[in-house]
């Protein structure tokens, strides 16, 4: 999914199955934050459209009001941030583990016992 704004409000509304006025209302409530052209035209990204589709499902299929939708979206945003942070930490940990193993390989010297000395 792309975060790059690309759809005008009429296209985004059609993709999300909503009226353009509904998108404006959701923007006013802070549920979606479309990009803007220098002239002020709203442009929606694929992520915005996905979010609008989720709002549509939450309100129509689950019967949530907008306060409930706001709560769900806030939790989803937090979950996304936590997952991103977890992936970052996991990557750092893997790098550190790899570096530690590499150092062990450099420092490990095989021990080979010397044969007993022969008496002349």
Indicate the topology:
Blueprint (H helix, E strand, L loop, with lengths): L8 H8 L3 H9 L6 E2 L5 E2 L2 H15 L5 H42 L13
Antiparallel strand pairs: 1-2
* Rounded average pLDDT: 91
Distance between the termini: 81 Å
Helicity range of the residues?
Answer: 55-70%
Biggest sheet descriptor: 2 strands, antiparallel
What's the SSE pattern? Answer: HHEEHH
Poorly predicted segments: none
Rg, rounded, reads 28 Å
Strand order in the sheet with the most strands: 1-2
**How would you classify the helix and strand content by structural class?**
mainly alpha
**In one word, what is the shape?**
rod-shaped
Total count of helical runs of at least 4 residues:
4
Total strands: the figure is 2
Beta content comes to: under 5%
Features:
120 residues, mainly alpha, two-stranded antiparallel sheet
Describe this structure in words.
The structure is a single chain. The protein has helices at 9-16, 20-28, 46-60, 66-107; strands at 35-36, 42-43. It has 120 residues and is mainly alpha-helical. The N and C termini lie far apart (81 Å). The mean pLDDT is 91. Strands 1-2 form a two-stranded antiparallel ribbon. The protein has four helices and two strands; from the N terminus they run ααββαα.
The gist of it:
With 120 residues, the chain is mainly alpha-helical. Helix content is 62%, strand content 3%. It has helices at residues 9-16, 20-28, 46-60, 66-107, and strands at residues 35-36, 42-43.
């Amino acid at each position: 999914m792309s975060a790059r704004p690309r759809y005008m409000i009429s296209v985004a509304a059609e993709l999300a199955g909503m009226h353009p006025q509904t998108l404006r209302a959701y923007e006013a409530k802070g549920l979606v934050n479309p990009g803007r052209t220098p002239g002020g035209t709203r442009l929606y990204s694929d992520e915005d459209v996905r979010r609008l589709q989720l709002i549509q499902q939450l309100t129509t299929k689950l019967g949530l009001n907008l306060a409930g939708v706001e709560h769900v979206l806030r939790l989803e945003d937090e979950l996304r941030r936590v997952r991103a942070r977890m992936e970052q930490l996991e990557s750092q940990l893997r790098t550190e583990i790899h570096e530690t193993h590499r150092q062990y390989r450099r420092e490990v010297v095989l021990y080979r016992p010397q044969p007993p000395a022969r008496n002349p």
